Amino acid sequence: MSEHETESSESNNISENMVVEFLKNNPDFFNQYPHIISELKIPHNHGTAISLVEKQVFVLREQNQQTRKRLHELVEIARQNEELAKRMHKLALILMDADDPKDIFNTLYGDLKKNFHADRAVVRIFAKPSFIDSFATDEFAGRETAEESLFKSIIDKRLPLSGRMKRQQQVFLFGDDGDEIASSVMIPLHGEEWGGILSIGSFDAEHFQAGMGIELLANLGEILSFVLKPWVEQA
Q1: What is the architecture, at CATH level 2, of domain 99-234?
Q2: Which one of 24, 165, 186, 227 has the fewest beta carbons within 10 angstroms of its own beta carbon?
Q3: In which element (H, E) is residue 76 found?
Q4: How many C-beta atoms lie closer than 10 Å to residue 188's C-beta?
Q5: Residue ranges per domain, the chain?
Q6: How far is CA 27 from CA 22, 56, 157, 182, in A?
Q7: Which residues in 35-155 belong to E strands, given as ranges?
Q8: What is the pLDDT of residues 25-41, one digit of tens each?
Q9: What is the pLDDT of residues 160-217, one digit of tens each?
């Protein structure tokens, strides 16, 4: 075997990891051999070879575009959250000025459908029968102890839950026609001796996705709990 063939055989045995490791351990390599950067050609999407420098420029340009796109998305999310916070503040003021729970619920339902793009909205309170009997409406019902267990973890943890509801939860909240609700957010209501659920439903399966950011909507549960407290606990 000739000397040239021996060198060629040895070079073929060099793995990618060995090359990477060599360059990591010799960071001054390209400073010592600057001509290699311009001489190296690598494959390109269009079938032509480009220099390593051109490839790096292309990568940096792509990264810059992705960063700008992400920044634009974050700005848009911030704008939407600011608008949502303004709506929430306005709704809170209206709810606190309501004369009784029926006014609260009517105002709440109307505002959620108009300003928060809700297809359905419902409140369920687990409280004293006297309160439930006094303020029952078509979209407001109360104490069913067995069904309360369906929402115990949500109420106890005081954490909203978004996405697709369990079938039992769906029927209890929205009735037998609840199948039309493709996604929802369930927001806990709570007091010293009572609890409840505010659920906002959508016919769009993508509207309320599991794991989505719903912190601002969670604040609505705090507001509604505060507003309802005097009537629930004094009934």
Answers
A1: 2-Layer Sandwich (3.30)
A2: 24
A3: helix 52-96
A4: 23
A5: 1-97, 99-234
A6: 9, 17, 53, 56
A7: 41-43, 49-51, 120-126, 140-141
A8: 887 887 787 777 667 67
A9: 888 888 888 888 888 877 788 888 889 998 887 788 889 988 898 888 877 666 777 7
